[in-house]
């Protein structure tokens, strides 16, 4: 959705949704998360694909003001959807997990908005939550350790931990110099690789989708001069075929 004005609150009829190519997955998404993640309003119409939450029109407008580097907004009813993206949101994140990561520590003087609150109140909450990191738990992690934590989460395919790292200001495009990560009981050495390289190499579809939605650089090269797509192309598993589709679609700005 583009443009600078408020997002429309006119909800299309349910019949319009049933005619879409991904109607079953969209119905599952609405059924799993029928209320806005920020104010609990009923009748969600929007999704932040980068944060994995469903939203009402007021809160979607506030999310859009954050910019796509923080929250990428898509209409449930009007936009085209990738089934890979929908599955990633359905099976990895969601409103409850977002709450656990982004708002476990609400300071005195703040409260989570409710449906009846004004758009201004909702916007203040959303800005404080995502732009100021105002409600995450206080954990001080030095930059090198933060990079290693994110790379480890990506290599292990742990989407919840990836989002936790991003909520604690880990750089999605960090390049750990030389680390050994235990993956499924096996020590794996990664040299000069970004979190996206790690997820691509291990074939973790949902981790790749989440990193891509949160600004992972598809052109970044590892110590061997390989991009994430090069890494995915070097493997031939079904998971890597899906990952190649994600990266190519993102590269060509199709559905992502």
TrEMBL record:
Q: Which residues form the Arf-GAP domain?
A: 23-143
Q: State the ANK repeat positions.
A: 191-223
Question: Which residues constitute the signal peptide according to the record?
Answer: none
| Keywords, ordered alphabetically | ANK repeat, Metal-binding, Zinc, Zinc-finger
GO molecular function terms listed in the Swiss-Prot or TrEMBL record: GTPase activator activity; zinc ion binding
Metal-binding among the record's keywords?
yes
According to the record, the residues making up region (Disordered) are 1-20
Name-wise, this protein is Arf-GAP domain-containing protein
Source organism (scientific name)? Octactis speculum
């Amino acid at each position: 959705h583009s443009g600078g004005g408020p997002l429309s609150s006119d909800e299309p009829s349910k019949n319009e949704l049933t005619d879409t190519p991904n109607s079953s997955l969209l119905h599952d998404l609405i059924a799993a998360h029928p209320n806005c993640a920020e104010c609990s309003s009923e009748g969600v119409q929007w999704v932040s694909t980068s944060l994995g939450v469903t939203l009402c029109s007021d809160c979607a407008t506030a999310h859009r003001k954050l910019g796509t580097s923080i929250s990428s907004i898509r209409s449930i009813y009007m936009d085209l959807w990738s089934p890979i993206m929908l599955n990633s949101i359905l099976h990895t994140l969601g409103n409850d997990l977002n709450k656990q990561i982004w708002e476990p520590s609400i300071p005195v003087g703040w409260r989570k908005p409710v449906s009846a609150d004004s758009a201004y109140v909702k916007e203040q909450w959303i800005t404080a939550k995502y732009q100021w990191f105002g409600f995450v738990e206080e954990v001080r992690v030095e930059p090198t350790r933060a990079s290693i934590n994110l790379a480890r989460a990506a290599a292990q395919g742990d989407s919840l931990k990836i989002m936790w790292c991003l909520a604690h200001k880990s750089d999605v495009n960090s390049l750990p110099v030389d680390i050994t990560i235990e993956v499924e009981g096996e020590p794996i050495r990664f040299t000069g690789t970004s979190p996206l390289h790690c997820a691509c190499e291990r074939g973790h579809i949902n981790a790749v989708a989440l990193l891509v939605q949160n600004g992972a650089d598809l052109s970044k090269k590892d110590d061997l001069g390989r991009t994430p797509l090069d890494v995915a192309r070097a493997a031939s598993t079904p998971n890597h075929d899906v990952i190649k589709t994600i990266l190519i679609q993102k590269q060509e700005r199709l559905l992502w």
